[in-house]
Queue: 2 jobs
Job 1
Amino acid sequence: MLVPVIGIEVHVELKSKSKVFSSSLNDFNAPINTNISLIDLAYPGTLPKMNKEVVDMALKAALTLNCKINKKMHFDRKNYFYPDLPKGYQITQADTPIGYDGYLEIDVDETKKRIEIERIHIEEDTCKSIHVGNETLLNYNRAGVPLIEIVTKPVITSSKEAILYLEALRENLLYLGISDVKIEEGSMRCEANVSLKEESSSVLGTKVEIKNIGSITNVGIGIEYEIERQKKLLQNGEKVTEETRRFCDKTNTTILMRVKETGNDYRYFPEPDMAYIELTDEEISDTLKSLPILPNQLRNKYKQKGINSNNINTIISNKEICDFFESIFDLTNQVMSANILTSEVLSYINKNKISLNETLLTKENFIKLIELLEKNVITTKHCKEIIPIMLEKGTNVEEIIKDLNIEVITDDNFVLDIINKVINENPNSVKDYKEGKDRAVKYLMGQVMKESKGKINPKDAMDKLISNLNNI
């Protein structure tokens, strides 16, 4: 039986202030060909200079992924010719990556699995190629942008595992604050190496690399297609060729780009213009202590407070929402806050295609909203009306409630009068309830809310309604 063996390579652009080997600004949104220097343009005689901020960011990633650290590192030249590579070579780390032999743990069907990391190394990005008709234009803003490349060992066995790994990796890098990891903007780029082997054998099959994958979902689709393509070849007695293929999102297939190069094609040799970098035990220890709280730690923290798993995952997947939630976490009811943030607040910002930071929501106003909700002054239904005004205008929640005239009436006598009126006016429904027909109580409750114009607490009213019905 043939089984898949998959390895993932991920290139991540770091959001340092300047590029990795020059002082040019590192800014994705800058006008084309404005953030460039003589070093980026590969003028003869220019020398690269290492950006310490890049090393610090790469070290954070390596420690987060449980890697061993190379305390003494050098850079290498990876030689190949392509129009987007001004120097004719790329400065990278071949023999001494900053991190190696690490792992990232994922949950697969409620079972934990370690995805082993072979290496993390620092390198520079190339120019961005822009294809216009039969011409290719180059944006040198991206030349020299710092990258870390994260390479797994061939331990992934399905497209599902690959997707879970990439989602977990993206979350961790985002929460480290070292990258935007926006696949649509190219700050996180994924490539998959796929091969098949006999289940009983330890010998790996011929691997095929898939490039040009524009989303984590498409990584899974590309892997599935490639597994089936290779299976058909082998079942027909044909050989799988080691090659590079690109993913086509229009057909959800992979297309041949070129026969795979070997490592020797790149003629790696130590970069003569770069000094060795040495990390001290103190630097490594200080970086480890400075790591922020990461997604899995947040999951455990939220779970202990009784927040449901769907809300936890929704909060963590939106870092702005999570940062806001963390800022109020110890100041309010966490379960209620999570419910409102993941429903009304998230719905509003998604509908309007804005971020939470673009709204006028303040933590003080939100805390007051939850306080009033907890005291049954308002209901979750009222929040549908209140939240948009809070986000758009920043109006005090108590003023909004007053203006909309939606404050919940908590007077027990008022509530009981309405319930008794509804019971007296609907004897047939009362009879149905007594005969065990569940729909009857829902109808009666609807009449109670209608009679009160939605100004009483539904849970409190339901409890009183059932109590009165049972006493008839």
Job 2
Amino acid sequence: MIPVNILAVRYLPGADPGFARSLGAPAGHTSLGMLTTDCDDATYIALDAATKAADVEVSYARSFYAGSANASTPNAGEIIGILSGRSPGAVRSGMDAAIAALGRIGFEEANGVPYLAHTVSSVGSYLAKEAGVPLGSAIAYLIAPPLEAMYAMDYALKAADVKLCKLYAPPSETNFGGGLLSGTQSACQAACDAFASAVKEIAARPL
């Protein structure tokens, strides 16, 4: 697994209410926690984990253009994620959960081709909204470079009883592609395995 580097973390225990609302925080959520990392998709999954561990919401999460190798400053990386909550303690608990999750989630690599094929067994509020599925559903989170992603997505969809919930058509901000699939946990894992196998096939023999 390619490790995710956490670049910067900061807390605003009493953010300006108007500022918090402009970042998407619900009413009453004036405590914020911010982080940047060098891997956007792993961080989206980790931020979702925060919503399951504490009474927080993912108020703002955006990828930066061109990827971490082309980051604008040393601590910018590939993504900024902002959690919001009613109390500083809730936000810190959520951030602790996100940071812990980042130690377990990351891209794999096949002949220099990075890919993410990760089953989220029970989504929190953030990924449930992104995928348009009920809270607690299982999803397959699939990401790879453009051609590999589109080729492997078809394999994943045919490998198991899964449904395409969201397609990330290339290029994304980081010039990758992929999507979110839903189904049972075992079906999502089968889809992840098929996606990974297809990416490895291209990595081994691109032409």
